[in-house]
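If I may wish for something, please sit down with the protein I am sending here and say whether C-alpha cells and residues agree:
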Amino acid sequence: MSKLIASLGTSLLLSLPLAVQAAEKLNVVSWSGYFSPEILAKFQKQTGIEVTVDSYDSNETLLAKLKQGGTGYDVAIPSHQFIPILIKEQLLERFDPAKQPYYASVVDNLKNPTWDPEGAYSVPFIWGTTSVVLNGERYKGPSDSYKVLYEPPAELQGRINMFDSVSEVIDMASLYLNIPLCSEDPKQMQQILGLLKAQKPFVKTYSSKAGAIRENLAAGEIDMSMFWGGSSMRAREMKPGLKYLYPKEGVLAWVDNMVIPKGSKNPANAKAFIAFLSQPENAAMTQNFLKHQSPIKGVEPFLDAGLKDAPELHIPEGTKVVFSQTCGEGAIRLADRLWTNLMR
C-alpha cells in the first residue's frame, strides 16, 4: 500500500506543470501585440505564473536588446532568419524542444528547420507572408506588382507606410528588383538604395508597429503599407475596403519562433509557457487573435469561421513564396549603411 501511495504521489508531482514548482514570474519580449489578454490569463490560471510582456518592432531591435544583456527576458520570439545569428552570438539557451512530446504537434515542414536543424533552440510560434495592403476604395488601378508601392500613383503618394525593419524593407525591394536576398554586391545594394530614395518623398511614416498601422489604415491616415497577411486581415475587419496583394514578383514568408534567451532567470517557466502555446487549442487561440497561419497541427476545430476563407491566409496557387534568409556579415554591413543613408 505504501508503495502504491508513493507511486501515486510521484505521478501527481510529475503531472503538475513544472513551472508551478518554480518562481511564479515570466518575462516575455515579443513583436508588439502578439498576445491576447485571454491567452495570458488562461496560462496564469493553469500555472499560477504571472506573465509580463515587453515588445520590439524589428529583429534588429531584439538583437540589440539581447546583446545588451536581455534585461531579464525568459522568452523571446525572433523571426527564423535571426535564429542562426542569435545562436552564433551565444544569446540563446539550448533546451532541446525537439525531444519534448509537444514538438510532435509542429507541422512537418517546420520541424528541425534549416535555421535550427537539431530542434535545439526554437519552436515555431506563428508564420505567414509579408506583402502590401492597400485601400481599394481610394485606389482602383493595377495592383499586381510592387510597382504600386515603389512608384505610387498620385492618390497614394504621401499616404504610405513602410516598415522600419532594415531586413524586411531590403528583402521586399530585392524581390521587386529581382536581386538575390542578402546580396553582398555593392552595386545591387546601390540599386536598392536608389529605389527606396526615389520612393521616400511619397512615404508618410516608417513603422513596424502592427497596432498603429492597423489604426492608421482604418482611420484613413494612410492608404497603403507593407504588412503581414494576418495583420492585414485584422485591419480589413476594421475597414472592409482594404485588400492584401499577391504581386507577380512574389511574397516574402517568415516564421516567428519561441526561444529562451541566455541567462533566463525562469527557464522552467519559459519551457512551460512554450509547451502551453504549442498545444493545438492554445495555438488556435493565437491564430484567432493574430490571424496569421499556425505552425501547429490540429488547430482547425478551434478556429474562428472567418479564418477558413480569408484571402490573406490562402496564398493563390502559383504565387512565388520566398522565405527570408540569414544574411552574412558583408550583407549586414551593406544593409546598415544603406539604412543610415536612407534615413538621413
Remarks:
- The domain at 25-125+255-313 is CATH 3.40.190.10 (D-Maltodextrin-Binding Protein; domain 2).
